[in-house]
Structures are given as C-alpha cells and as structure tokens.
Design brief:
Strand order of the largest sheet: 6-7-8-3-9-10
Mean pLDDT: 91
CATH architecture: 3-Layer(aba) Sandwich
CATH topology: Rossmann fold
Low-confidence stretches: none
Shape: globular
Number of helices: 7
Helix content: 25-40%
Amino acid sequence: METLIQLKKVSKVYEGAGMSGAPKVTALRDIDLEIARGEFMAIAGPSGSGKSTLLNLIGTLDTPTSGEIFFEGRRVSSLSENELSDFRLHSLGFVFQAYNLIPVLTAVENVEYALTLQGVPRQERRARALEALHWVGLDDNAHRRPDLLSGGQQQRVAVARAIVHRPALVLADEPTANLDSKTAKTLLDLMLELNEKHQITFLFSSHDPRVLETARRILQIRDGALVKETAA
C-alpha cells in the first residue's frame, strides 16, 4: 500500500508554564509511524497520554520539537506558516468534538466555506457542497442553520465540510464524544462508507469503544509513547 504519512523519531516537549523553573512536559517521545493511503484507524489512550498531541502534529496544527513528518514524501514539518496553511486547506479535513460550525451560516454555507477559501467558483462550490451533504444524508437540511439541527446532524455537517474538498486525510478528534450510541454508530458507519467508497483516509483520536470497534487499525499510546498496535 502507498505510504501517505510517515513520522520519524517525532517528539514534542512543552516548556513549563507559569512560574520560572516549572518543569518541561514531554507529550510525545520518539514516535515512528507509517500510515497508508485509505486506512481507517484510531489512536487510543487515556487522557493525557499524548493522542491529541499526535493528531495535532500530523494535522500540522502544532510542530514537533524534534523529528520529521512526511506527507506523500514531502517533509511538512519544515514548511513555512503560509505553506502549512495552504497544505491544510487542500490536503486535510478536520472533524472536531465541538463541531465548530459557523452559527450564522446554513449547513450548505458551512460546507462551502473551505471551497470559498480555495477560490472555487460559486456555482461549482454550491454543487459540491450539496453533493457532500447528500453523502452524509442531509439533503433536506441544507438550508438550516446549526441551531435548528440536532447534535448528530451538526456533526454530519462537520463531516461534509471535512470531505467536500476531497482531502487525502481526515483527522477526527473525539468525534463521537457528544453523541448518543445510535447517532455515534450512524456517524461511524457513514465515515467507514466514505472511506471504502472514496478511499479517504481517516485517523481518529479517541478512547470511545464505539470508535475502536469500528477502526481497522488501532495504535495504543501511553505516556507519550506508542506501546501497542492491533489490526482488525
């Protein structure tokens, strides 16, 4: 399988905050990892284990203290801020626990937002946004604002927004944390279908058993180190 992401000896150390002399915190230590295109996988571990830090580093929302990160063979850990913004805009999709929808925009306008930033013409971006909402089963809610949608519907809008520009990788940080069991299963089944039909790579950060039961590959992280890997 084609390697999409590669991490080589990646570590992340946070300087002590507050009073002078506060200790440093090592969030990740010497992570070696390869993720193939088309995987559906999860990073699991208790709170404070480093899983969200690892997701943020792969998503270039943070930079490693040491080591290198490659995306499709390109070393992204050394890109400039402008280059990183462009990379995230075109190559990555994000699904957050809190949805992060823009409250004054309708569902279709929220989904269109990334395409607007890319300069996609209005007619094309509307068509693509409606298609993405169709993929997640929200055709009838395209023109509703987030406050008129349930939590599960808002999270599906967030998934549509993450995939509308056809990214190579979608990063999802605790995407089911605020959802009931039925809605969480529906969302996970949807993302698995998108993975299988459109070869979108999904990487989750979660300790939710529902996510871990669906993932095809699970990386266990503890105290900033990868300690175990299991595959379905």
